[in-house]
Specification:
There is one protein chain. By secondary structure, this protein is an alpha/beta fold. The chain has a single domain (3-249), classed as Metallo-beta-lactamase, Chain A. It has 8 helices and 13 strands. The strands form 2 sheets. It has a 7-stranded mixed β-sheet with strand order 1-2-3-4-5-6-7, covered by helices on one side. The protein has a 6-stranded mixed β-sheet with strand order 8-9-10-11-12-13. Helix 6 runs antiparallel to helix 7. The mean pLDDT is 95.
């Protein structure tokens, strides 16, 4: 696995099919990990962290708790002995009290969608180690960042935004690869898409969230799946997605469509 620079103080590492993101504050020794990858990728994440910073993070901060974002979460939190933060609505899935809804393999028209009934949907129990993000939208240990409530893909999904240079960490509010397609995931074909359709349970809120992120007018975006987007291409494609979300992104049929 190779880590890539996204923007000043922002790096990402692809773990099988999902990204983890390393974000530092002005002091490079103060950094956080955003999301925790697929499967037991802890050794790769720790190796990358050591190469980038030479120290453990101050915290792990979650966009949401789907299986492809929590793979190494428990192991990393215990190894580094750090807190985990997530939106308060996401807490039941990170304390073992609730499981996620079943995926919808009928949407997305791709092998990754067809395989989705095999993906884990059980919540994990982090106990007292996980706590809700601050209500004032600040991001712990990252004073230049704010969190943005972007539900739809999950009820407690959040994104992160740095106003100073308009860098957006969008999680799965939208993606930069057609995550439903095995070929697109394998080749990392770069194009803007909506949230992974098979796990998105509230399309009305997903549309609102894309509109909210488009209004931020980001200059850089790194998502949970795919490669970074920049500048005019990002502006144009994100605006197009916002304007055509109902006709081009929301599936015509599915168990969570029109719910």
């Amino acid at each position: 696995m190779t880590q890539f620079n996204v923007a000043d103080g922002v790096h990402y590492l692809r773990t099988i099919m999902a990204n983890v993101i390393f974000v530092s504050s002005g002091n490079e020794k103060d950094w956080v990990l955003v999301d925790a990858g697929v499967g037991d990728c802890s050794s790769s994440i720790i190796k990358t962290a050591n190469e980038l910073f030479g120290t453990s993070p101050k915290a792990i901060i979650m966009t949401h708790g789907h299986f492809d974002h929590v793979g190494a979460l428990r192991k990393l939190a215990e190894t580094w002995d750090v807190p985990v933060y997530a939106h308060e609505t996401e807490m039941p899935y990170l304390t073992g009290k609730e499981n996620y809804s079943s995926p919808d393999p009928a949407v997305g028209k791709g092998m990754m969608s067809l395989l989705s009934p095999l993906y884990p949907k059980k919540g994990i129990d982090l106990g007292n180690r996980v706590q809700p993000l601050p209500k004032d939208f600040s991001v712990p240990f990252l004073p230049d960042w704010e969190w943005v409530y972007t539900p739809g893909h999950t009820a407690g999904h959040v994104s992160f935004f740095r106003k100073t240079d308009k860098v957006l960490i969008a999680g799965d509010a939208f993606t930069t690869v057609k995550q439903e397609s095995f070929l697109a995931v394998a080749t990392q074909k770069k194009e803007l898409h909506g949230p992974p359709a098979y796990f998105t349970t509230d399309w009305a809120h997903a549309e609102d969230s894309v509109e909210k992120l488009a209004a931020l007018d980001p200059e850089t975006a790194i998502t949970g799946h795919g490669r970074p987007f920049y500048g005019e291409q990002l502006h144009q494609e994100l605006q197009h997605m916002k304007n055509h979300f109902r006709s081009e992104v929301i599936p015509k049929h599915g168990k969570y469509v029109n719910v």
